[in-house]
Design a protein that fits this description.
Blueprint (H helix, E strand, L loop, with lengths): L10 E5 L4 H12 L3 E6 L10 E5 L5 H15 L4 E4 L23 H29 L2 E6 L3 H4 L5 H21 L4 E8 L10 H11 L3 H7 L14 H12 L10 E4 L7
Parallel strand pairs: 1-2, 1-4, 2-3, 4-5, 5-6, 6-7
Helix pairs in contact: 1-8, 2-3, 3-5, 6-7
């Protein structure tokens, strides 16, 4: 049914939207008639009349607040934000084979993941939230991960930042609900390969789990890993985001939707 979601003309900020899930979300929202701003470090050079690229470091308050103002100046307002920007670098807490080595978590990497995955969500949500509270309506979508609830071997810092995002979603929904602002999470599981699933990432994750890269890849589609027996499509996550932004989901807040094919273990 055409226009079932009814989100035409909505102004939506999507962070980390030059690739992966974020790019798929932008494509879906543009197809639904939204006006979209992509906050990312690098531009993927997608051209569309309703798409604005704003180079943004989500870990910088000054940068985030200036970027949000650019969106208001360009589109007139903001109706929703999708906090999608994040990084994931597999590391072990302790590597008995190589203490303090390449695959053992260090301060620099820990701080970087917290700055982008956790602080970045806070900064963007606050800057946009002020606008939504003033309007008395709007939606904040926080991109989580099933690893944030279940934990994930070799990915403890990433999982921990996503657990924080779960708590942000629950807590902010209680604070902002009185202003008619909804806060909802989306938690993807294993998804189809993108440029973000690099060989370096797979080598790191397989090392932390004591398996080969081939074994890791085989697990992407095993029913013992994901009950539906396949990797998810980026478009399936994007569809969920578009629905949650719409008034069709007007009574949904404070929860995180698991888009993971039934996967419930890290």
């Amino acid at each position: 049914m055409e226009n079932w979601l009814g989100i035409e003309g909505k102004v939506v900020i999507v962070t980390g939207a030059s690739s992966g899930i974020g790019a798929a979300v932008v494509e879906e929202l543009l197809n639904d008639g939204c006006k979209v701003a992509n906050f990312d470090i690098s531009d993927n050079h997608v051209e569309h009349d309703n798409l604005l690229f704003v180079q943004t470091d989500v870990s910088s308050r000054e940068n985030v607040e200036a970027s949000v103002q650019k969106v208001v100046d360009h589109f007139g307002t903001v109706d929703a934000v999708v906090n999608n920007a994040g990084i994931n670098v597999p590391r072990l807490l302790v590597d008995p084979k190589d203490p303090k080595g390449k695959y053992e978590l260090n301060d620099e990497l820990f701080d970087k993941m917290v700055a982008i995955n956790q602080k970045g969500v806070f900064l963007v949500a606050q800057a946009v939230g002020r606008i939504l509270v003033d309007k008395g309506q709007g939606v904040i979508i926080n991109m989580g991960s099933e690893s944030g609830l279940e934990g994930s071997e070799g990915q403890s810092p990433y999982a921990a930042t996503k657990a924080a995002v779960y708590s942000f979603t629950r807590s902010w929904s209680k604070e902002l609900g009185k202003h008619n602002v909804r806060v909802v999470g989306v938690a993807p599981g294993i998804l189809e390969a993108t440029g973000l699933r690099t060989l370096a990432y797979e080598e790191s994750l397989s090392y932390t789990r004591g398996i080969t890269v081939d074994d890791l890849r085989a697990g992407y589609s095993k029913t013992t890993t994901t009950p539906l027996g396949r990797s998810g499509k980026l478009s399936e996550v994007a569809d969920a985001v578009a629905y949650l932004i719409s008034d069709r989901a007007s009574y949904i807040t404070g929860v995180t939707l698991n888009v993971a094919g039934g996967k419930t273990r890290g």
